[in-house]
Structure formats: C-alpha cells, structure tokens
Specification:
The chain is mainly α. The strands form six sheets. The chain has a two-stranded antiparallel ribbon with strand order 1-3. The chain is globular, with a radius of gyration of 25 Å. The longest helix is centred in the first third of the chain and has 26 residues. Helix 5 runs antiparallel to helix 6, helix 8 packs antiparallel against helix 13 and helix 13 packs antiparallel against helix 14. The chain is built from 20 helices and twelve strands.
Length: 640
C-alpha cells in the first residue's frame, strides 16, 4: 500500500484524508485471501483436504508434486505452503500503521475513527491467530512497530510463548469488540463486527485450553533462541473456563441464531424438495425449533447454508466471512472440484469411509457396521431421498449426510443448463463408468467412491459447453454460530471446578462450571437443526463419553470448513486418527460386482502416517535466515 502512495504523499499526510485512510484499511483486509482462506481448493487451503475426513486426488500422484500422498506421508518440506507467513505479517504491519496514525484524520468523526481502529485491531489479532494455529508460537512484533533504520541483526525477534501469543490476541480482540458495531450493512458485510471479534477470541481460547498446548510435556523441546520452553508444561483447567466464558460472550449478544428453512409440505423440485420428516420422537417431533424439528426442514437448513441459496447478509448464523476476498478460488472453486467429471467438474474431492460412517442414522443411532446393511433400492420412493440402484448402506441416514455426501448413485443437478436432458444425472463410481476408475492413469475419479457436494448448488453448472451454464455465488463460512455453540459445550465439559471469569468488557463476571443443562442447550440446537435427537443422560453424565460425542459432532457439522486437521492436532488424537488406513469403496469393482464395490477396503493410493513433527507446520528456511533469533518447530530442519 505504501508503494501506491509513493512520491505523492507520506504516512503523515495520508491519514489526514478519509478516502485514503479507508483505502488503507481496505488493503489490510486483502491478506485474508490465498493461503489464509479456510474453504478453497487444495492450492490455497490444503489443510482442509488432508485430514482423515476429506481428500483430493485430481491429477494422480505422479503428475502433482504437492499431492495428497506427499502430505499424508509427511513428505512435504520447509518450503511448502509458506506464503501465509509473510502475508500475515504484512497485514499485521499495515494494521499497526493504521492504528497509530488514524487519530490524525481530519475528515472522520470520533466514532468512525474508533470503529476503524477497532477493525484494524481485529485484523492484526486475526492474522496473529492464523499464524498461531498453523505454526504454533510466533514472534510478536512490538506494538509501536519496528525501526527499519536499525541494522538487520537488531531487527531479529524471538518467538514468544504460546500463552503470551494467546494473551495478546485475546486482549486485542476484546479491545476491538468494545468499539466494533454489532452489524454492518450488506455493502460492508465482510467487515469485522463485535461478534466476529468475540467469536475469534473464543476459538483462540479453545485451542489454548486443548491438550496440544495445555501442559503438553511432549512438546518440551519447542523452545526459543535462549532455550525457554514455548508451551506450558503445566496443565491449567481454568483455560477451559476462559474458552467457555468467551463463547458465552458471543451467545449473550443475542444477535446470532442457527439458520433454518421452514418445513416444506410440497415438492418444489431439486432446489427445494418436500421435507423428509425425521423418525417420530416423542420429545422433538411435535416441538418447534430450537426445541424440536416440527417447523423446520433439517436437510435444507443445513444444505442452504453452504450452497449459495442465501446471501451472507441473510444468514443469521454467519459471524465472519471473507466474502469478497476470495478472487474466485473459494467455495465456488471448491464446488467445481467436487462436481463429477462427466458434468463439467474435476471429480477431485471426496470423503473417507470413516467420515461416511460418522454420520448418524435418521433416528440418531450409529450406523450398523458389522455386518453392514446389504441390498439395494429397487425404486425411488421407499427410501427417500435415495433413487433406484443405491446401496441400502446409505438409506435412513441423517439429513446432514444427504446434504454433504455424494454416495454412489446419488443424483447431481445442473439446473442452469437450458437443455432439460442435461439437468440431472445419477452418478455412479463403478469401475468403467464415466466417473469411476478407468484403465488409463492418471484419471479423474473419486478414490473412495464417496464424493462430496456440501458447497454445490443444484443450479451450478461448471461445464462451459452447456448452454446456460451458471455457478451460484457462495461465501466462506469462516466462523458461524454453530461453531460457537460447540466451543461452549466442549469447554464446559472439561471443567471439574467452578470459575469466575470476567466478560470481555471487564464489567461483569461469568460463573463457569460443568453445567449439563447449558451443555445440552448449546449442542442440542445443532443436532436438532440437523434432524437428530440430543444425547441421553448417560452421555452427559460422563466427561469421556461427552468428549467422544462432541468430537464426532464437530466432525459431522463442520465438515469441509477447515477444522478437522487442526482439531485432531489440538486434541492430540492425530497420532491414531491420521495414521489409521484410509478406507473406502472397492473402486476396482464394476456394477456387476456392486456388493463387493460397497464392501470397504483400504485405498492403496492413500498411504497414511503421523509423526510428531506433523503437529506444527515447519517455518521456512528463508524466514529462519532472515531472523536469526527465530527457532524451528520440533522435527524440522534449519538452514544453518
């Protein structure tokens, strides 16, 4: 941004005028794109696609130097996916310059200055958070910035401890929240709000409370340049209470609610079919949301949040989104990767058998695995929404399954096509089928026989050869209210004692303890919206059982939103979950061998391994050379 104004004005005069100051602040937002996006293709958001839930495999390992195989085998190196480091620090520097100079503006009101400064504080803290999530503890730039006239050696800054990073980020987010507005106009929908700052603060506290960063003695060798440990070696339960209190701050705003679509008694076509009513439940079937699903359509309530059916401003659940900073590489591009090859897409993304089996049955029970359900549908009416010829393993599943998963034989639509004959197609992944495994290699096919359609709209058509092709605009759900509710429930569950935690204003106190009614009130909303009942008393009565259920709920509800990769690491579950062989359908089977096709096997092209160095992303050698006080993450190499 400084280069833009070079030879025309300097910092002293730039911030005097409102127009120039606004342009500077807008430029601070631009660093939320590329590798700092949560929902995008593998070139920009690979961490969303390399865990145990989703995968990519579009061009074959031999043609892609950054393949799923390389990631899963830990064969990446210190030079991979490193643009976010410099981009975040550029954003931090620009935000700091704005904060320290905007008070001299002569054309902005005191309120406009306060809000602008709060936005810059939010962005600075959020960039630090993105770094912390990826790399662990990072250097904290002095608040007044760096004197670039000093010798290069004097500019070196060591890594701060994880807790110090958390303290700075959460303090800045709380300060920003004081002056940020509750809402913005549609035109400014991508700008930070009070809720965005508070929700981001809850995320930061949640990670800080989690096993990876809370008393993790296995990371005792993560040290700074003087040998100081950067992760606390002593467990502190109060960190969970801070996370719960931060989530409660968001809830208490009374601004957000889970998005729901009204019950639909008439079939309005693929864009909104007749509501499939969940099995009768004495508590939920005759109660209105959030106490029941009588008046909502669980399938559409989940599907429409992600497929562009509603605008960002129309979604009461959306707390923060990059919206306008995606440059065509976000959810819309992800949808193209998900779309079958025979329908103009790349057929590149799918889910694992583990993810498929995580979804509940329609009555909230577990999927039968031993033995699995045998047989196939013989019509398109007995097991809605399944069409004919589909494995009964996919029958009677919860609505979120049908909104997210492209099971073998599911129907894909492209309603923007003018030719009715091209508007819908039943997609099969059998060997020899257009979207299945082909003799030629590499081939565009879903390696597990389980595709994904979470960000795909029935109207979408990515095939430019189809007359009328159109792709519905979509936004990125960076933070949404369902996540806040899950943070609140998870944090409360881990408590053994009672804590008094100040709210973000410091004017009142939250009394935080393991409160089952509060936990249930939070997580049951998410489950009921998804058409499944709340847990029974046995689950709430056990920390261990609830923790297991909560992890599964996040796996289902937040699929494809860049959480699973980081969740498994912060829970320290990655050594087991990430190293478990990837299972899927037997892609070598043809339609004549359909029972064998649906008998899960290990996918040989998806090897798995997890070693300790994979907990944190390596710092690039280039940055280590620049900053001699910077230390590398455990297990990775240094250039000297």
């Amino acid at each position: 941004m400084e280069h833009y104004f070079k030879d025309r004005m300097n910092i002293d005069t730039l911030f005097v005028k409102k127009d120039y100051a606004d342009r500077w602040l807008a430029d601070v937002y631009t660093h939320l794109k590329e590798e700092n996006i949560d929902v995008a293709s593998k070139d920009y958001a690979p961490f969303n696609l390399i865990s145990d839930d989703m995968f990519f495999g579009d061009r074959g390992d031999e043609l892609d130097n950054r393949s799923y195989k390389n990631y899963k085998n830990g064969e990446y190196n210190e030079g991979w996916i490193q643009r976010s480091w410099s981009s975040c620090y550029q954003g931090i520097r620009k935000a700091t310059i704005y904060i320290y100079n905007i008070d001299r503006n002569r054309q902005m009101s005191a309120q406009e200055i306060a809000e602008g400064k709060a936005e810059a504080r939010f962005l600075r803290a959020y960039y630090y958070w993105l770094l912390l999530r990826k790399y662990g503890p990072v250097p904290l730039v002095p608040d007044e910035g760096i004197d670039y006239t000093k010798p290069y050696e004097e500019l070196a800054i060591p890594r701060s401890s994880y807790d110090d990073c958390v303290d700075l980020i959460t303090r800045e987010l709380a300060t920003a929240a004081l002056d940020l507005p509750l809402t913005h106009t549609n035109r400014d929908r991508a700008r930070a709000t009070k809720g965005a700052a508070l929700a981001a603060r809850a995320k930061v506290y949640l990670y800080a409370a989690s096993p990876e960063f809370n008393g993790n003695t296995e990371m005792a060798d993560l040290i700074d340049n003087e040998g100081n440990q950067l992760i606390s070696q002593t467990y502190n339960e109060e960190k969970w209470a801070r996370a719960a209190a931060a989530a409660k701050d968001v809830i208490d705003l009374n601004v957000y609610r889970l998005f729901t679509v009204p019950f639909n008694a008439a079939d309005q076509g693929p864009a909104q079919p007749k509501t499939i009513v969940p099995p009768f439940h004495v508590k939920y079937s005759n109660a209105s949301f959030p106490n029941g699903w009588k008046d909502i359509d669980p399938f559409e309530s989940y599907r429409q949040m992600f497929n562009g059916a509603l605008t960002a401003s129309a979604n009461p659940e959306l707390i923060f989104s990059r919206v306008t900073e995606l440059s065509g590489v976000g959810p819309e591009a992800l949808a193209k990767h998900q779309t079958p090859y025979s329908m103009g897409g790349w057929n590149a993304h799918g889910i694992t058998q583990k993810q498929c089996d995580a979804y509940y049955m329609s009555d909230g029970s577990d999927v039968p695995l031993n033995p699995r359900v045998a047989g196939f549908t013989t019509n398109d009416k007995d097991y809605l929404p399944l069409p004919t010829g589909v494995s009964l393993q996919y029958a009677n599943r919860e609505p979120r399954f049908y909104a997210s998963v492209s099971y073998n034989g599911s129907i894909w639509y492209r309603l923007s096509a003018l030719d009715p004959a091209l508007r819908n197609k039943q997609i099969f992944y059998y060997r020899g089928d257009p979207d299945g495994k082909q003799p030629a290699s590499p081939q565009f096919h879903v390696r597990t026989g389980l595709g994904i359609k979470k960000f795909v709209n029935p109207i979408d058509s990515h095939d430019g050869k189809v007359t009328g092709s159109f792709v519905v605009p979509k936004y990125e759900p960076a933070i949404r209210y369902a996540e806040v509710l899950l943070i609140y429930a998870e944090a409360l569950n881990e408590l053994g004692g009672s804590y008094s935690i100040p709210d973000y204003t410091g004017t009142k106190t939250h009394s935080i303890t393991r409160n089952v009614p509060e936990m249930s009130n939070a997580i049951s909303q998410v489950r009921i919206r998804g058409g499944v009942p709340d847990y029974d008393g046995n689950v709430y009565g056990s920390k261990e059982l609830f923790r297991k259920a909560l992890k599964r709920e996040r796996q289902i509800e937040l699929l494809g939103e860049n959480h699973r990769y980081y969740d498994l690491r912060r829970w320290k579950d990655a050594p087991v979950e990430e190293a478990t062989p990837v299972m899927g359908c037997n892609m070598d089977m043809t339609v004549a061998q359909r029972e064998l096709f649906h008998t899960p096997v290990v996918i040989p092209s998806f090897p798995t391994i997890f070693v300790r160095k994979m907990y944190l992303w390596p710092i690039s050698h280039e940055e280590l050379r620049r900053n001699k006080k910077l230390t590398q993450n455990p297990g990775w190499t240094t250039p000297y």
